Amino acid sequence: MSLLLDNPFQELPPDRAVDTDLFLETVSHIPSFFDCLGSTVFSVIKSDINGNITKIRAVYLKDPAKYVTLQAIVEAERDAHGAQWPKVGATLALMWLKRGLRFIQILLQSLADGERDENNPNLIRVNITKAYEQALKKYHGWIVQKIFRTALLAAPYRSNFLKALSRGEEVKEEDCLANVRQFLVNYTVTVDAIYEMYTNLNAELDYAV
Ligand code: EIS
């Protein structure tokens, strides 16, 4: 089992450029995390994220020296694809991947901040719903929103989720949350930098699936 917190994101350089190879290596550990969440509904999400990563990697491998940063890929595709861009290639894959990453960021931040449903303290539905509303909901039509509601019902208990984050070991909640906070530092900076790049390059779309 490969765990989120075992594969930390690196600190970004002063220009906040995201190194493609390092980014792909780090995010490639995320999909296997879904295996320890149990329900098959998570396999849909896993394969979507896997597809995004595979697509970005395929472009990167065509010319690693040229595509050393994520921005270099997005700019090259903008110059190559004309009117089709940004709904094309690695630009589209990263557009969606960053939303999943933002979802994870908000979910973990909410847990780290101690937000919880006092009536159901061992559920993480309030945290998941917050992340969904802020990161994904507006890009989803009713069918996908229904998949979300199914995933929500299948979500693990808080204690099991924290245990999964801690490589299945019994770790004190406070220790696990301290690791989550540590993980979130570079992770949040990286996700923010990708969002900022999409805004600056005018690469963001808001169609719903
Ligand atoms: C994109 O998918 C493709 O990704 C993209 C291209 O084909 C594009 C074309 O328009 O579509 O349809 C997908 C969309 N992806 C659009 C939906 C998939 C199912 C989403 C179900 C949403 C449920 C999310 C809630 C999950 C609750 C989980 C609770 C767990 C405790 C640590 C947990 C991490 C959960 C992370 C969830 C991330 C969800 C990401 C969904 C992205 C999405 O909406 S391309 O493909 O360009 O590569 O070819």
How would you describe this protein?
The chain has 209 residues and is mostly helical. The chain has a single domain, classed as Glycolipid transfer protein, GLTP. The protein is 60% helix and 0% strand. The chain is built from 8 helices and no strands. The protein has helices at residues 20-27, 41-62, 70-81, 89-112, 125-135, 142-153, 158-165, 173-200. The longest helix is centred in the last third of the chain and has 28 residues, at 173-200. The protein is globular and about 55 Å long. The two termini are 31 Å apart. The model has no long low-confidence stretch (mean pLDDT 94). Bound molecules: ligand EIS. Ligand EIS is lined by residues 37, 44-45, 48, 51-52, 55, 92-93, 96, 99-100, 103-104, 128, 132, 136, 139, 144, 147-148, 151, 155, 161, 209.
Short description:
The chain has 209 residues and is mainly α. The chain has helices at residues 20-27, 41-62, 70-81, 89-112, 125-135, 142-153, 158-165, 173-200.
Number of structurally distinct domains: 1
The major pleated sheet works out as: none
Quaternary status: single chain
Class from helix and strand fractions: mainly alpha
Outline: globular
Average predicted confidence as pLDDT: 94
Strand element count: 0
- Which H/E pattern describes the elements? HHHHHHHH
Beta-strand portion reads: under 5%
Helix tally equals: 8
CATH class category: Mainly Alpha
- Helical residues, percent: 55-70%
Question: Any idea what the CATH superfamily is called?
Answer: Glycolipid transfer protein
Keywords: Cytoplasm, Lipid transport, Repeat, Transport
Family: Belongs to the GLTP family.
Protein name: Glycolipid transfer protein
GO molecular function: ceramide 1-phosphate binding; ceramide 1-phosphate transfer activity
